[in-house]
Design goal:
cell outer membrane; Lipid A deacylase; membrane; hydrolase; EC 3.1.1.77
Length: 182
């Protein structure tokens, strides 16, 4: 049910894209991330809007970024530290992301971001527990944008509530990302 809602949301975003002129796009790219952590898997769909800024422009590179709105589904495979006990949760997130890239936005890039996420229920998997629905999600990544506007990337992402409520063991994902830029 949740997967159908996420796919419908992405289809809506893509349809809305055609309603805007080339210079007034609501969404500049869409992506899917697949991630894995200790006995948990995640899939996330995202839509991004580029910033129209270029900081520290030099030698054909600059620092810029984008706003990312995401929805993800997590599958815990050792819920409440019971082997084989599964549980599902979803997260909705908003993240400003800084990206160091070439001026033409093609080729190799490096990025990092810190955003906010809302989990549908408390995370309690393996020996890791998060005591709040609200989480910070920070990531660092490296990727490549091809001439045909497709992008591939690898990311490390950490979720934590910043220590404002215990327990807060955090959870770390290794992720791969595929994106398309309009």
């Amino acid at each position: 049910m949740f997967a159908k809602k996420v796919l419908a949301s992405v289809a809506t975003l893509l349809a809305m894209q055609g309603a805007y002129a080339a210079n007034d796009q609501l969404v500049d790219s869409v992506s899917v991330d697949f991630g894995s952590a200790a006995k948990v898997q995640m899939v996330r769909l995202s839509a991004a809007k580029d910033w129209d800024v270029r900081w520290f422009q030099s030698n054909g590179t600059h620092l810029s970024g984008y706003w990312e709105l995401s929805a993800g589904a997590w599958k815990e495979s050792q819920y409440k530290n019971i082997s084989g006990n599964t549980a599902h949760l979803w997260d909705v997130g908003f993240t400003p992301v800084f990206r160091f890239q070439n001026d033409n936005k093609k080729g190799l890039y490096y990025e990092g971001g810190i955003g906010v996420h809302r989990l549908s229920k408390l995370y309690d998997n393996d020996t890791y527990r998060l005591s709040t629905h609200f989480q910070f999600g920070d990531h660092v990544g490296i990727g490549y944008v091809f001439d045909n506007n497709w992008e591939v990337a690898g990311k490390i992402q950490h979720f934590s509530n910043g220590g404002y409520k215990k327990p807060n063991t955090g959870v770390n994902f290794l992720e791969v990302k595929a994106a398309y830029h309009f």
